[in-house]
Amino acid sequence: MKLDLYEAARIGSVQFVNKTTETLLSTTPQGNTALHIASRLGHVDFANALLA
């Protein structure tokens, strides 16, 4: 996963959402996607932006 997307998911920064397939499917070394991270941290707007 690109560090920028991970960081955006961690802080809930919607403007960093890039909906390319590579971005949506990328994972951290632990296997988490940006959606997993945003959901776990309660960033509903970020999660919705990923799903839109």
Automatic annotation (TrEMBL):
Which InterPro entries has this protein been placed in? Ankyrin_rpt (IPR002110), Ankyrin_rpt-contain_sf (IPR036770)
Protein origin, superkingdom: Eukaryota
- A Pfam match is Ank
Any signal peptide, and if so, which residues? none
SUPFAM superfamilies xrefs: Ankyrin repeat (SSF48403)
Entry keyword set = ANK repeat
Q: Does the keyword Metal-binding apply?
A: no
Q: Which PROSITE patterns match?
A: ANK_REP_REGION (PS50297), ANK_REPEAT (PS50088)
Which positions does the entry assign to ANK repeats?
30-52
Report what the protein is called. Uncharacterized protein
Organism whose genome encodes this protein: Acorus gramineus (Dwarf sweet flag)
Taxonomic path: Eukaryota, Viridiplantae, Streptophyta, Embryophyta, Tracheophyta
